[in-house]
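Board notes (copied after class):
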Amino acid sequence: MEELNISMTAIGIAVVAHFILGFLWFTPIFGKVWGKEMGYDPNPSEEEKKAMMGLMMKGMIVMLIGNFFMAYVLSHNIAAWDFVPGMNEMGKTGSLINTAMFTWIGFFLPTDLGTMFWEKRSFKLFAINTGYHLAALFLVGAIIIFVR
């Protein structure tokens, strides 16, 4: 049985890069709009700030764990496609586009649409969140494909 070509180095780099992307996406890039759409108070009291900091620290830990699972599973998915005849003819850029787009269309987009509908969220919030998922898939996929 052949082994999958998995790089733990690429996975580690992808986890950190994904974490940085999340910070940038939800802080300087879309932070104010995202916070408003989520209903967060733009001027919290000192007591609320302390409570939010504790929640944020827990959220960051959970996010790192989730980023690891995403990179690890996506890495296995990408490696498994190496065994499909003709896939290597597509090249790394083609593999990246297929990986990111099909994973987003098949898994993230339906979930994000359902969240928008069932939780009565705005289209603006949907666009920010699903855009982040797509950007993360491209980033993590690129690292896994080009570093391994």
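Comment from the instructor: The two ends are 20 Å apart (CA to CA). DSSP finds five helices and no strands in the chain.
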